[in-house]
Amino acid sequence: MSDRANPNLPARDFDATEAFYAALGFARGFRDNGWMILVKGTLALEFFPFPDLDPAQSAFGACLRLDDLDDMVARVVAAGVPDKREGAPRFHPPKTEPWGGRIAYLLDPDGSLLRLIDNRSLGEVQAAR
């Protein structure tokens, strides 16, 4: 097995969190009362219970570096995550950042910010240097 890091994110309700991420293509890898792991290909997100979390006050987040950002964006849109600037969940469509990378932003129902980073754009940024 190769080295890896898996983000640990809060969930107010495991059932609701699992349903939200299932619509994005994640499946249950493990779940008990104190921990849940959701996987999609080589991605794994781990969740711990935090029933009293205020999503508006959450400072949790992770970067998901994706070989196919457009596929994930299509899943987010199909799941009905709104493109808005307040509340959770919400989505900000991809754009090319000043540093050259293409990135979208997804806030899950618990206020965790997922930066969806296009791996292809990172290759272009490195090639330009």
Automatic annotation (TrEMBL):
Gene Ontology biological-process annotations: response to antibiotic
Keywords (A to Z) from UniProt: Antibiotic resistance
Chain ranges passing through the membrane: none
Stretches assigned to the VOC domain: 1-119
Highest taxon, organism lineage: Bacteria
Xref: InterPro entries: Bleomycin-R, Glyas_Bleomycin-R_OHBP_Dase, Glyas_Fos-R_dOase_dom, VOC_core
Ribosomal protein among keywords: no
Family stated for the protein in its record: Belongs to the bleomycin resistance protein family.
Full protein name: Bleomycin resistance protein
UniProt source species: Sphingomonas spermidinifaciens
